[in-house]
Amino acid sequence: MSTFWSIWISVIVLGTVFGCWWLLYATRKGQTTDTETDRTVGHSFDGIEEYDNPLPKWWFYLFLATCIFALGYLALYPGLGNFKGLLGWTSTNQWEAEVQEAEATYGELYAKFGDTPVEQLAENDDAMKMGQRLFANNCSVCHGSAGRGSLGFPNLTDDDWLYGGDPDSILTTLHQGRNGNMPAKGTMPNMTNEQVDQVVNFVLSYSGREKNAEAAEKGKEVYAQACVACHGPEGKGNQALGAPDLTDNTWLYGSTYDWIRETVVNGRQNQMPAQGDRLSDDQIQILAAYVYSLSN
To answer: Are 252 and 154 in contact (CB under 8 A)?
Structure first.
């Protein structure tokens, strides 16, 4: 935060605290008596009159204590721009401390399964209960609570895997993450609109759904120039590149003419964030077993 904004925030915060104190003091000073009286302020509201009594002392002292507490809090904790407080507390430090405490508490539980092969862990009920919780906390926001995915996020419950569904591939995905990139118009950036229509029809022809058979036939040549390097001559894809199989019924971004055309024209970028810097090796081993169990 810049020095200007730091000072600006500090002035507003301290001005609010001292403004409250001044209002309290001015109100107290303007009182004509410290005891309750029968005197009114001289106004009547729908036949209701207001007594001219002072604030109750407990109320006054509570307001005063609030101001003192606020100043003490701002001295100890962040709240005045760039001033970090005398205690040096930050939400990051607290989170890291909580993580360390959790690792010390639960680390031994995870360690019991850390050396067990993924296939065996997938048959262990206790490990799967832990894996389900890890999945819910770290994966469900994208893949769904049941692992069935959504538009742009793979379904983990079928047997169609972009990068491979064997234990080693799943472990690699979790540890290192994945970066998928479908370049716009493939390796043929000068592709015309007519050629886009042709190659889309050709891709649809793999499942007999082309809109124009003549365009699909011409699209075979466009496909060979723009798409074959990743998806292969038969459209079966390439797991090493994360290029999907175009001949099945599993589509990450939709299988209609319009969806495929948008993919060809604009390309797709998709990222699976690495979990290696967030979860321990033992946790990833259990999580991989849970993901493996979803489709096995």
So the answer is: yes
Task: At 191, list the tokens.
Answer: 């592709």
Pick the CATH number of 99-177+273-294 from 3.40.50.10610, 2.30.22.10, 1.10.760.10, 2.30.40.10: 1.10.760.10
Indicate the domain borders of the chain.
Answer: 3-76, 99-177+273-294, 181-272
Angle at 266 between CA 264 and CA 267, to 5 degrees: 65
Q: Would you say 59 and 105 are in contact if contact means Cβ atoms under 8 Å apart?
A: no
Distance (Å, whole) CA 182 – CA 267: 5
| CB proximity list for 289: less than 8 A, separation 6 or greater | 113, 118, 119, 121, 122, 124, 127, 128, 131, 167
State pLDDT tens for residues 34-84. Answer: 777 777 777 777 878 877 777 788 888 999 999 999 999 999 999 999 999
Which residue from 80, 55, 71 is spatially nearest to 18, judged by alpha carbons?
71
Backbone phi, then psi, for 57, in 5-degree steps?
A: -60, -40
SS3 138: helix
Q: Residue 211, SS3?
A: coil
Say which CATH class 181-272 falls into.
mainly alpha
